[in-house]
Design brief:
By secondary structure, the protein is mostly helical. The protein has helices spanning about 1-5, 10-20, 25-35, 40-50, 55-60, 70-80, 85-95, 100-110, 115-130, 135-145, 150-170, 170-185, 200-210.
Length: about 210
Amino acid sequence: MAELAELEDPKVRAVNERHGDDHGVNLGKLRALAKRLKTQQELAYRLWETKDTAARLLALLICRPKSFERDELDAMLREARTPKVHDWLVNYVVKKNPHSEDLRLAWFTDPDPVVASAGWALTTERVAKKPEGLDLGGLLDIIEAEMKDAPDRLQWSMNNCLAQIGIDHAEHRARAMDIGERLEVLKDYPTPPGCTSPFAPIWITEMVRRAR
């Protein structure tokens, strides 16, 4: 914790707080610290228990993803209210855990939109890597009906899923593009030069073009 406190940078914190993240540690320096510590599951638990955002990010880098029980991950996600902790928990830990599919199904329909957004993130992963058994048309039905008015985090995850379906599944591409065009979600999202817009029709078109 003392090392993390030394890494605190007010400028980094100011940028992060604009995105809802309450920490001021440069992520490159955080990763370097994690590399030095290597995997330490017990230390990861203790860091998580501090409730400090930088400590929790470090915990997620040094933990053993397959060691967590299903209910532990469920509780951790419900505690992870800052965007970066939430994203790293889903991407670095839950996706590598044997309970990921069970959690995907449970979270997908959760009444808490932040928890539901994790269910959608795991669904997007399956759309890309293991679509067998998924009802892609049904997912598009939900997106079409609910994405426009969904809270920000949930809307973002739904939009990612919409784009992934359009990119990876040619038979659904026209419908995915049409839904994106009509709902106009993230159409005006500020996109830096050289980056691809998260607006689904632009994103799908660009990724399909690159794959040719």
